[in-house]
Amino acid sequence: MTTTRRARAARALLLAGLVAAAGQAASAAAPDPPFALTYAVTSAEGFCQASHANAALAKEAGALAACFRAGHVADGVVDVLFIFEDDGRVDYAKVTRQSAGAAGVAACVRRAVEALRVRPPDGGRCTVRAAIRATPRAPR
């Protein structure tokens, strides 16, 4: 192995160690939220399946939880109506109901829902209604 290759390998190992350490520090610094986040598709009309919309919500669960965390809401619900276009992207999202405690997180939840993507629905658009809920965790 040449000196240049050894130097590159050493830099790669050092960088990998730094990235791993940063990841461990970030996970240690971010405690579990004081709530459990649940989400459920309550209806899916058109050319899609509720399971696909639920899977898309699962991919954005971190962003949805961040909305409740940033709003300091550990007990609240936001209901959302959104439309997947025929390309699988959300074209329209609207908060249809929010609990009194979740009023501050509604806009954030709407933006997170707008980022959802699914496999393009066969045949056209799909209208979905979903409930995103934060429920307080029991004290440990």
Topology:
Blueprint lengths: L2 H27 L5 E12 L3 H10 L1 H10 L5 E9 L5 E9 L7 H9 L11 E11 L4
Antiparallel strand pairs: 1-4, 2-3, 2-4
Helix pairs in contact: 3-4
Biggest sheet, strands in spatial order? 1-4-2-3
Helix content: 40-55%
Structural class of the secondary elements?
alpha+beta
- Sheet-strand content, in percent, reads 25-35%
Tally of domains: 2
In the CATH hierarchy, the architecture of the largest domain is 2-Layer Sandwich
Number of strands: 4
Shape: elongated
Rg is: 20 Å
Multimeric state: single chain
Query: Under CATH, the topology of the largest domain is which?
Result: TolA/TonB C-terminal domain
Contiguous helical run count = 4
The mean pLDDT is: 82
Low-confidence parts: 12-28
Q: How do the helices and strands follow one another from N- to C-terminus?
A: HEHHEEHE
What is the distance, rounded to the nearest whole angstrom, between the alpha carbons of the first and last residues? 54 Å
Describe the main β-sheet briefly: 4 strands, antiparallel
Molecular structure report:
- The protein is an alpha+beta fold and 140 residues long.
- It has two domains: 1-30; 32-136, TolA/TonB C-terminal domain (2-Layer Sandwich), CATH 3.30.2420.
- It has helices spanning 3-29, 50-59, 61-70, 106-114; strands at 35-46, 76-84, 90-98, 126-136.
- Strand 2 and strand 3 (90-98) form a beta hairpin.
- Helix 3 runs antiparallel to helix 4.
- The longest helix has 27 residues, at 3-29.
